[in-house]
Amino acid sequence: MSYSVGQVSAFAGVTVRTLHHYDKAGLLSPSERTRAGYRLYSEADLARLQQILFYRELGFSLDEIVAILRDPQANAVEYLQARQRQLSEEIARLQQLAKVAERAVEVQQTGVSLSPQERFEVFGEITFDLSYATQAELKWAHSEGQRESMARAAAHTKEDWRQLMGEATAWRAELLASFDEGEPSDGERAMDLAEEHRLHISRWFTSCPPDMHRRIADDFVADPRAFALVVPPSQQRPGLAAYTAKAVHANAARHAGGRTASQEDR
């Protein structure tokens, strides 16, 4: 049985112009024509069209589809595996963007609106890398602490941000002084600074026990974007991220050894 171009267009959901284009491209030429020159498509042509539409839905170009159909046994699996990898990467990227958009909506809903001048006044050189924020959100997606942290951050007022960033600035100055003056990372001064940072997180975002603080500090070394949230690049020194992480680990060990009482308990 044969079908006219109009019939194929209707039940395949493609335009007549598209079918003409497939014919000119050598992708799908009808097996028959009427005496008047009109295209007629066979059952085999329809099966080929179904393959073409399948590959088009997956995002393959016409040239790629021509190559696949020329020798489907040799090419189809290789092309499909490559496309599967591309689609997986794109899905992950879109999921990240969706998370960023979700958090942006939450921030907008807080009603805290900062002008560019106010934003610089509050945050200074500290910048929030959205790619890192998105990855962190995905990494800790099932963490109650992460959910609490994001909720509390979204609820902060402009004055809250001014206060917590003021605390962070003062703490950062002390950290830099300790590092520049050669204080050991496992000494009392460095460990006290680590404890102060842990309490700052607990006070403003979420409860931060020593084990969690260690994981946060490990990110300082593993990902420069994480440490940039604590010390802007213009103020960083070689080895400072590792120094801070070691101080955090030493402070966590101090807690585990019970040699000092947490300031939270005083």
From TrEMBL:
Name of a matching Pfam family: TipAS
UniProt keyword Oxidoreductase present: no
Keywords, sorted A to Z: Activator, Coiled coil, DNA-binding, Transcription, Transcription regulation
Family matches, as SMART domains: HTH_MERR
Coiled-coil segments: 77-104
Domain of life assignment: Bacteria
UniProt domain HTH merR-type: residue ranges: 1-71
Protein name, as recorded: MerR family transcriptional regulator
Lineage: Bacteria, Bacillati, Actinomycetota, Actinomycetes, Kitasatosporales
